[in-house]
Amino acid sequence: MDKNERISAVVNTYNAEKYLDEVLTALKPFDEIVVCDMESTDRTLEIARAHGCKIVTFPKGDITIVEPARNFAIQSATNPWVLVVDADEIVTPELSEYLYIRVRRDDCPEALNVPMINRFMGKFSKTSPDYHVRFFRKDKATWPPTIHSQVQIDGRTEKIPSCLAGVHFLHLADGSMQERVDKLNRYTDRELERRRSKGWGMGALIYRPVWFFLKSYLFKQGFRDGRRGLIRAYMQGAYQAVLISKLIEEQTQTTEDKK
Predict the structure, then answer these.
(1) Backbone angles phi, psi at 12, to 5 degrees
(2) Per-residue pLDDT tens for 16-67?
(3) Do strands 123-124 and 111-120 pair parallel, antiparallel, or not at all (unpaired)?
(4) Residue 34 has what pLDDT?
(5) In the beta sheet, which residues pair with residue 12?
(6) Degrees (nearest 5) of the Cα angle 62, 66, 69?
(7) Quick one: pLDDT at residue 69?
(8) 3-class SS at 197?
(9) Beta-carbon-side half-sphere exposure of residue 94 (alpha carbons within 13 Å)
(10) Looking at residue 222, what DSSP letter applies?
């Protein structure tokens, strides 16, 4: 294999023992597996060593999100192509095969937008998959260190067709509703910083929750999952409602302080 066709799979971890053995087993087809750990205190490193992974450490400190460690993890890979995988995501055999076929073609873009099928309330969803730009040339990628940020690609990005059987990630995490609500509150707190400049007000408080509900339930065919799809759509809308409510609360407090 030409060295320019070699792929590194990069996994960011922090106390990720729950699914890690399964995740790393699925990554065996790749030329290198890099585990970028943020000082785990569980069996994460033991599992990574058992799989023969390259292990690098990113100091956790007060960091509570993964994004600040993304660039360090990506640059720790030794191959020109990188697949970024979270510690609760499975790369199917069909996806790994597709990536190697794609990089051997002359028209391969600098990045690929990869479909992901999520598990919700005990089952994998039948809805249209989510998409994430997770495969790219290492020298063309920069990952902003803010929550929910997306990798920035210097070049062309191509979307993998969702109709290709098995060519996707499988997202294993399936928290309880209480865990999802707790995460909603934490994530909206962290997202405030990058959303403050939007100037959202009452209009956004009305249309964004409605739009995200409709997008999830109708346009992404969440109705195919029955009650689970309806609940997931409500959660998508609720996230936006809580986020914008917190922004409006900040704006109101700032206005009151100026009086």
Answers:
(1) -90, 135
(2) 999 999 999 999 999 999 999 999 999 999 999 999 999 999 999 988 889 9
(3) antiparallel
(4) 98
(5) 36, 86
(6) 85
(7) 94
(8) helix
(9) 14
(10) G
85 DSSP β-pair partners: 11
Q: How does 132-146 read in b/e, with b if 16+ C-beta sit within 10 Å? A: bbbbbbbebbebeee
Residue with tokens 């499975």: 90
Residue 173 has pLDDT above 90, yes or no: no
> Average pLDDT, stretch 200-222?
94
Whether residue 92 contacts residue 26, with contact meaning beta carbons closer than 8 Å, is answered with yes
pLDDT of residue 117: 95
Token output for 170: 């499988």
Answer yes or no: are the C-beta atoms of 123 and 165 closer than 8 Å: no
The residue type at 94: E
Using CA atoms of 16, 142, 160, 173 in order, give the dihedral in degrees to the nearest 10: 20
Q: Please, what sign has the CA dihedral across residues 32, 131, 209, 127?
A: negative
Rounded Cα distance between 2 and 21, Å, is 29
Residues in the chain: 259
Q: Which residues contact 135 (CB under 8 A, 6 or more apart)?
A: 81, 82, 83, 84, 99, 111, 112, 114
Of residues 236, 187, 198, the one with CA closest to residue 215: 236
pLDDT of residue 155: 97
Query: What is the reported pTM?
Result: 0.84
Neighbouring CB atoms inside 10 A of 227's CB total 8
Q: What is the arithmetic mean of pLDDT over 184-210?
A: 90
